[in-house]
Design a protein that fits this description.
This protein is α/β, with parallel strands linked by helices. It has a single domain, classed as Thiamin diphosphate (ThDP)-binding fold, Pyr/PP domains (Rossmann fold), CATH 3.40.50.970. It has helices at 7-28, 34-38, 40-50, 74-84, 123-136, 155-163, 187-190, 196-202, 215-225, 262-277, and strands at 65-68, 143-148, 172-178, 181-182, 185-186, 206-211, 232-237. The strands form two sheets. Strands 1-2-3-7-6 form a five-stranded parallel beta sheet, with helices on both faces. Helix 1 crosses helix 3, helix 1 packs across helix 4 (74-84) and helix 5 packs parallel to helix 6 (155-163). The protein is globular and about 50 Å long. The model has no long low-confidence stretch (mean pLDDT 95).
Length: 278
């Protein structure tokens, strides 16, 4: 797959994916919006520039494995996979419908999806299992695991964090959506996370802070992470609802409200930004 290298082209792609996400959620009438919009830039950087993937051969033995732990932000994942041709574009019209391929949480039967999800906090353990298996087989594939900040309130996550350095998983890169909000408020209000960078470092990881909306920073951080000897956590400082001003940074838009006019206003704002980039 040909990589996108120009920063402006990556910005355009991320904006188009945000628009696709809004259209999917509007048609479904439900789902999650804050996280998907906030993670659009990081997903774009990984899928269109960094990862070794082949949409025409989703199960290639040489592929990088990309997992999503916080599965509720799957609308952005579906937008990416559909755009890349992992499944037919019109499948996105069936988001969250009964018997649809694209449910509210991803499942492994979707081409390009490596892990099913549900309860938060399990994705990193799944990623560690894959990364360890690849090392045992002496394979060079990389494993990327997208995560949320909120799932660091789960004990399961920290058991996984403790495990990765034990096996020196230098083929594992985790990327955190650190937006500080969750379904009922801010993370500080519900369960403060403290200094996550220092916590990861104390467990033996390399932890890297990055502006989750600056492609030049994201790409250089991914390049550096790829050379580190051991597991890497990239803490992506993001804004929930990024790109839609009336949603940005508001926990109330963790999920899609479906209020009249929201989709129209959001799409108009994103389209205007897209025109500025052209």
């Amino acid at each position: 797959m040909q990589k996108i290298t120009e920063l402006k082209d990556l910005q355009k792609k991320a904006t188009q994916l945000r628009m696709d996400t809004i259209k999917m959620l509007d048609k479904a009438g439900s789902g999650h919006v804050g996280g998907p919009l906030g993670m659009a830039d990081l997903f774009t950087a990984v899928y269109y520039n960094f990862a070794n993937i082949d949409p025409d051969n989703a199960d290639s033995p040489d592929r990088d494995y990309i997992l999503l732990s916080n599965g509720h932000i799957c609308p952005i994942w579906y937008a990416v996979l559909g755009d890349l041709g992992y499944f037919r574009e019109d499948a996105k019209d069936s988001l969250r419908k009964i018997n649809s391929l694209l449910q509210g949480h991803p499942k492994v039967k979707i081409p390009g999806v490596e892990n099913s999800s549900g309860p938060l906090g399990h994705g990193l353990s799944q990623a560690i299992g894959i990364a360890l298996g690849l090392k045992m087989d002496k394979k060079k594939n990389r494993v990327v695991c997208f995560m949320s900040d909120g799932e660091h309130q789960e004990g399961q996550t920290w058991e996984a964090v403790m495990s990765a350095p034990k096996w020196n998983l230098d083929n594992l890169i985790a990327i955190m959506d650190y937006n500080g909000i969750q379904i009922e408020g801010t993370t500080d209000e519900i369960m403060p996370l403290g200094d996550l960078k220092s916590k990861y470092e104390s467990f033996g990881w390399t932890a890297l802070d990055v502006n989750g909306h600056r492609f030049e920073d994201i790409l250089s951080t991914l390049e550096f992470a790829d050379k580190v000897d051991g597991p890497v956590m990239i803490i992506g400082h993001t804004t929930g609802g990024k790109g839609v001003s009336f949603m940005e940074g508001k926990w109330e838009y963790h999920d899609w409200k479906g209020e009249e006019g929201d989709a129209t206003k959001a799409l108009a704002e994103l389209e205007a930004y897209l025109q500025q980039l052209s």
